[in-house]
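Chapter summary example: a protein plus nicotinamide-adenine-dinucleotide.
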Amino acid sequence: MKLLVTGGAGFIGSNFILYWLKNHPDDQIVNFDKLTYAGNLENLESVEKNPNYKFVKGDAANPDDVQAVMEGIDIVAHFAAESHVDRSIHDPAPFIMTNVAGTQTLLDAALKNNVKRFHHISTDEVFGSLELNDTNKFNERTNYDPRSPYAASKAGSDHLVRAYYHTYGLPITITNCSNNFGPYQFPEKIIPLAITNLLEGKKVPIYGDGLYVRDWLYVEDHIRAIDMVLGQGKVGETYLVGGMTDEIPNIEVARKIVRILGKTESDIELVKDRPGHDRKYSVDWSKIKNELGWEPQHDFDTWLEKTIEWYKQNETWWKRVKDGEYQKYYEKQYSS
Ligand code: NAD
Ligand code: TYD
């Protein structure tokens, strides 16, 4: 099998490529990535010389770039996206270009080249926000209600992917996953931001009252879910993927990290809230469990500790990532 992995130099995409080459050693992978601020080929140094791995730099929204890499591809695993909510609030345009126009460009090329499967990686954020006291969870029948430009752009891409299935018969599948954490996550997202700030002697910025809840999932569990959907998932179907945390508010996530790193509560500061901040995400993953036998295997506390250890051991990686362009973004985002 020959896979096209879009956005393979990012957090989840690079973890996916490392996992896939290990678990499916006969498959070939083409990693197609624009290398934005979030793309980092250092994540893939260990497979650079693998004859079954190839990197191609290109833009998902550029039809020529996309057509050139799509020839001979059996399976597309589409990770490429602008992925950070705060950046989408500052500047929505790149989110529409990559997440909406980029997805449509890839869908066109996939159709033209008769790919056997187009798998779209999406997010639970397309479903909007739950109240803290709401015991309901998002499921495959929940209405779309995106509230940030990022979530709206991902919702648009999901609709396009389904439209290509219904209208043109493109064999698609979709996974909508909750918040991931693990190695190689860009330190603008809360868990690596908190860890690296504390390692640098800085405080952890927590938005608003800190009582916002995410459904944390270790990245390898997400990748296993995608593997199972590619292998046994039903064409045209969507599967929700979530974690096993028991509604831990952000402030408590920060406290756990502070404790593991031997810091104190005074190393956490409450800062100005994010506009339109979604209160809670919670995912019912019973469909993928019942139909494909997937469930999360990595509990939050153990794997948070292991993730912290990874960042401690890989200081050069995140120090380089935090230099340059990211510094300008950080000053703009947290200046007040
Ligand atoms: P990331 O920001 O770490 O990586 C995105 C990658 O896409 C980068 O390598 C970037 O260079 C590349 N890219 C951006 N624009 C591109 C373009 N126009 N053409 C080609 N490549 C481009 O993101 P991530 O956290 O790894 O997320 C991957 C996917 O998973 C995204 O689609 C995201 O919406 C989805 N997702 C993420 C999470 C999460 O918690 N991180 C949860 C659910 C779903
Ligand atoms: P984030 O990692 O940006 O993921 P998402 O917005 O896609 O869920 O944020 C996770 C949670 O952490 C979210 O409730 C916002 C909050 N947060 C902070 O409190 N402080 C921060 O500096 C950041 C980046 C996020």
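Key point: The chain is about 40% helix and 15% strand.
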